[in-house]
């Protein structure tokens, strides 16, 4: 059973930066996709960034390209999301997610296929 615990959410001003962390446990294989999603009040959950745990593939939503960076520390089983130049529209609950045994690494960008979720961490950006 995969367990995901997010941390690092906070309130920041527009233009600021935050780094979110996700501690993952419960799996031993490297054949996983990991991703960050977000959901703002009244909006649907959207995929923000995905990464293949064994390396070699990342995927970003157009809205965060050039501002957000997904990365991982495999030794610590920790996923990160570095968020720079934050804007008020980035305010949302951010969730870490996992997809075991993807058919290909490109599935890491198939947001509907993620099946394990953390509880979320809140990011609020004020103007």
Topology at a glance:
Blueprint: E1 3-7, E2 11-13, E3 18-25, E4 32-39, E5 46-52, E6 58-60, E7 68-73, E8 78-83, E9 92-100, E10 116-117, E11 121-126
Parallel strand pairs: 2-11
Antiparallel strand pairs: 1-3, 3-8, 4-5, 4-9, 5-6, 7-8, 9-10, 9-11
Low-pLDDT runs of 5+ residues are none
- Strands, count: 11
Q: Element order, helices and strands?
A: EEEEEEEEEEE
Structural class: mainly beta
Q: What portion of residues belong to β-strands?
A: over 45%
Q: Termini separation (Å)? A: 40 Å
User: How large, in whole angstroms, is the Cα Rg?
Assistant: 14 Å
- How does the overall form come out from the CA principal axes? globular
- Helicity range: under 10%
Total number of helical segments?
A: 0
Main sheet summary = 7 strands, mixed
Overall mean confidence score, pLDDT = 95
Fold and architecture overview:
This protein has 127 residues and is an all-beta fold. 0% of the residues lie in helices and 50% in strands. The chain contains no helices and eleven strands. The chain has strands spanning 3-7, 11-13, 18-25, 32-39, 46-52, 58-60, 68-73, 78-83, 92-100, 116-117, 121-126. Strands 2, 4, 5, 6, 9, 10 and 11 form a seven-stranded mixed sheet that branches. It has a four-stranded antiparallel sheet with strand order 1-3-8-7, with no helix packed on it.
In brief:
The protein is mainly β and 127 residues long. Helices cover 0% and strands 50% of the residues. It is built from no helices and eleven strands.
Keywords:
mainly beta, single chain, about 0% helix, 4-stranded antiparallel beta sheet, about 130 residues, 11 strands
């Amino acid at each position: 059973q995969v367990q995901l615990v997010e941390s690092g959410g906070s309130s920041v001003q527009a233009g600021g930066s935050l780094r979110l962390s996700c501690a993952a446990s419960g799996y031993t294989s490297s054949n996983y996709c990991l991703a960050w999603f977000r959901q703002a009040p009244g909006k649907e959950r959207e995929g923000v960034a995905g990464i293949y745990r064994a390396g070699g593939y990342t995927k970003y939503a157009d809205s965060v390209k050039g501002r957000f960076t997904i990365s991982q520390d495999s030794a610590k089983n920790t996923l990160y999301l570095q968020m720079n130049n934050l804007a008020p529209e980035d305010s949302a609950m951010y969730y870490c997610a996992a997809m075991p045994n993807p058919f290909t690494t490109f599935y890491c960008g198939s947001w509907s296929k993620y099946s394990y979720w953390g509880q979320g961490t809140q990011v609020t950006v004020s103007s």
